[in-house]
Write a structure and sequence with these properties.
With about 80 residues, this protein is an all-alpha fold. It has one domain. It has 3 helices and no strands. The longest helix has about 50 residues. The protein is rod-shaped, with a radius of gyration of 31 Å. The mean pLDDT is about 85.
Length: about 80
């Protein structure tokens, strides 16, 4: 092989190594972004559930109003 061919192969291998390192960095960045997205969605979900759980008294009032409504009782009888 000529010196030019060897230099060309070295440059090619260097580019492949650089591309592989860049790919690894991008994949790690993608994983981090997905984790952050999942974290944010989970945090929002938990806050919604905490809000609903803190309004338990209001929930009981709404349920008792529904149970006292004759039309709802008829519907519930068919569902259950």
């Amino acid at each position: 092989m000529t010196l030019f061919a060897l230099q060309l192969l070295q440059r090619r291998n260097g580019l492949h190594e650089k591309a592989a390192r860049r790919r690894h960095v991008l994949e790690e960045s993608y994983k981090n972004q997905m984790f952050e997205r999942d974290y944010d969605e989970t945090k929002i979900w938990i806050n919604e559930k905490l809000k609903a759980a803190s309004d338990y008294e209001g929930y009981l009032v709404r349920v008792s109003v529904l149970c006292c409504n004759p039309a709802v009782r008829v519907r519930l009888r068919f569902v259950l």
